[in-house]
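Practice problem: predict the structure.
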Amino acid sequence: MTLNPYLNYDGNAEEAFRFYQTVFGGELFVQRMHEAPGTENLPDEEKNRAMHVGLPIGNGQFLMASDCLPSQGHTLHQGNNNYISVTPDSREEADRIFNSLSKGGKIEMPMDDMFWGDYFGSFVDKFGVCWMINFPNSK
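Answer:
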């Protein structure tokens, strides 16, 4: 199992990660909102925001992020700008962790197969900590 920090930004995720890249090196991965299905109706100023940014920081660990979408009701505020991203070793372990940690919390996205090929879900636990569970179906 690996844990990776996942950060949220309000339109400047790529800028922040280009800065982090100067520190950590590595190849920057950027996927834009307009590349995702169902984003055709986003306002033009949101279509180029980062849906997912990844930067390797050593030993199989990644710093990851995305930009919020104000048109979808996303508001960046202290507390939701950092997620703990867990990559379990099995789909069953993904379900166990998701179901256990989300009890009493607020589910943002239930576990489901996603268009990028992974099994994914996110929630805020009862203590206010933001979590993402992401199992690569290719494992």
